[in-house]
Amino acid sequence: MERFDVVVVGAGPAGSLAARAAAEGGARTLLLDHRAELGYPVQCGEFVPANSELNDLFHCPELIADAFQIPPETVLRETRWMTCVSPYGHRFRFPLSGAMLSRRAFDKALAYRAEGAGAELRFPLGVTGVEGNLVRATGGATLEARVVIGADGPLSTVARSVGIQPERVLFRMITATVDAPVADEIDLFFGHEAPGGYGWAFPRATDLNVGLGVTHLPRGGTLERLLDRFCAHHGFGPARDPTRWWVPIGPPPDSLVRGSTLLCGDAANLVMATNGGGIPTAMMSGWLAGRAAASYLRDGTPLRQYDVEWKAALFAPLERAARIYRWGDRYAAYDPLLALGMRYIGARGLDSMMRLRWPSRSGRNS
Ligand SMILES: Cc1cc2nc3c(=O)[nH]c(=O)nc-3n(C[C@H](O)[C@H](O)[C@H](O)COP(=O)(O)OP(=O)(O)OC[C@H]3O[C@@H](n4cnc5c(N)ncnc54)[C@H](O)[C@@H]3O)c2cc1C
């Protein structure tokens, strides 16, 4: 049986940052993924906020500087604005600096950075379960790890194996690319076009990443049909390479440590509930998980230190965002109410919500 200090399951943004931090901390680290090509198919809107914006959401500048480094060669375009569009087409625009990435290139770049730091990278190799320190892989292989890091996304096999079942709603997502004019603005569309969720149109280099995230499908409807209708309504070209996936929305769990297993990223339910973004929190939690594993192996620091650190950095804003999401969700089912609510809180209120804060007119600021 092969033995490692750390086995990281999943080479998405969370896993690659975890593997890099563990390897840099001196741990013999294996990073594995069941995909034949890392980062592909693309199951993402591909938008990330600028570091300065992220610092406004999470007050942990050192962690952001260490963990949230975007390989420049993976950036397709920088953006400066976000617009939220109401069910009747009213547009609420506010400044938001960010970048559109090629996730296909981004996931690879992060994984190769982990490899460059000394982690061993293996794919395609899937994990079917974790029992204590044993990691069962496809093909019947078993690996032994002193620490296992589950970074295997929203349907995490690792989380299920160790009995961590976060409270969440799994949004059904579909994403595709279309031909349409591009600008330095990302647009979110709310209302019946995306029941319970939102649609988006984000500018890549020369085309748009479009998609929908919904909590439920209309009777007899499919995600593909909803996407076709969405594209036709907004005058976008036909959808290319549509892909479905999931986004977990819910409060952050109380603990991400179970025995010698740590969870991070989507496997840990760390998506920002009011904007659906999960790349930055995946990178930050992954980095902290990898560092905690290395400290445990180096000097016996309890793995529970990971809970202390991710909670200090991420818990309060993520938990607040989950409460704001539940509050806003009451209005999401009825277009007239949703449109009225959006007009009432206006661009400033929507801006606050995207930044994981209560819209000021609701009177709550914590
Ligand atoms: C349609 C859509 C649009 C989105 N848009 C955005 C956006 O614009 N901006 C943003 O910030 N976030 C967005 N998100 C969320 C974002 O994609 C995730 O939060 C982020 O990818 C989480 O990173 P992760 O590393 O935790 O998980 P993932 O990126 O899901 O990586 C998990 C990895 O684990 C591997 N894996 C899974 N199971 C196993 C197994 N059993 N064995 C081995 N390997 C396994 C997978 O192949 C994958 O490579 C979007 C999500 C979706 C679905």
Task: Provide tags for this entry.
single chain; globular; eight-stranded mixed beta sheet; binds flavin-adenine dinucleotide; 16 strands
Please state the oligomeric state of the protein chains shown: single chain
Q: Which value, in Å, is the CA radius of gyration? A: 20 Å
End-to-end Cα distance:
51 Å
Mean pLDDT: 96
Low-confidence stretches: none
Give the percentage of residues in beta strands. Answer: 25-35%
Percent of residues in helical segments?
A: 25-40%
Helices and strands, in order, run as: EHEEHHEEHEEEEHEEEEHEEEHHH
Which compounds are bound in this model? Answer: flavin-adenine dinucleotide
Q: How would you describe the shape? A: globular
Largest sheet: 8 strands, mixed
Number of helices: 9
Strand-pairing-aware structural class? alpha/beta
Strand element count: 16
What's the short version?
By secondary structure, the chain is α/β, with parallel strands linked by helices. Helices cover 34% and strands 28% of the residues. Flavin-adenine dinucleotide binds next to helix 1, strand 3, strand 10, strand 14 and helix 7.
Descriptive account of the structure:
The protein is of the alpha/beta class and about 375 residues long. It has helices at about 15-25, 50-55, 60-65, 105-115, 155-160, 225-235, 280-300, 305-330, 335-355; strands at about 1-10, 30, 45-50, 75-85, 90-100, 120, 125-130, 135, 140-150, 170-180, 185-190, 200-205, 210-215, 240-250, 255-260, 260-265. Strands 1, 2, 6, 7, 8, 9, 15 and 16 form an eight-stranded mixed sheet that branches. The chain starts with a strand and ends in a 12-residue tail after the last helix. The site of flavin-adenine dinucleotide has 36 residues, from helix 1, strand 3, strand 10, strand 14 and helix 7.
